[in-house]
Predict the structure.
Amino acid sequence: MSLVPAMLFATRHIRSRKEAVWAGGVAGPIAMIPGVFFYLALVGQYPGILERPVPANHLLEVLGSRGFQIAFQVVLFGTLIETGAGLIHAFNERIDSVYRMRGGEMPVRLRPVTAVALLLASYLLSRVGLVDLIGKGYNAMSYVFTAIVVIPLLTVGVYRLRSHRVPYSRHGT
């Protein structure tokens, strides 16, 4: 759910309902197929997999390939960096859109300040630890994201779509 704001930012080029349906129809299965294969691999290790803090790493241990484990960790690290950079950019773009909507321009110095603030928040969250963060934090985060993303989308967003009032478009259309 935390990626919804970034995904919505990335979909602003979609101009029609037909394009949206096609994009979802193609992207959905592309995103789900690897998840199905991962799930099937996890089921093969049930119930022992439940005790593992990082199930994907356990699957690679079962394969017995240290090379796969190292490659997985390198790819995972790269993916985390790429995702983090994309989320920081999406956050900055969201702030910029608010400035533009109000007829102003985001101060140039605010971008790096925002990035540093987000990195500092990430560092503080990392002190909790990955397993505890997932185990304890996801439940609380789901309520927060429901309050700040889902409810506004389903109320204000639907109202604006129905009334055809879109207050701001970066592309001027």
About this structure: The radius of gyration is 20 Å. Residues 4-10+19-127 form one domain. The chain has six helices and no strands. The CA atoms of residues 60 and 135 lie 22 Å apart.
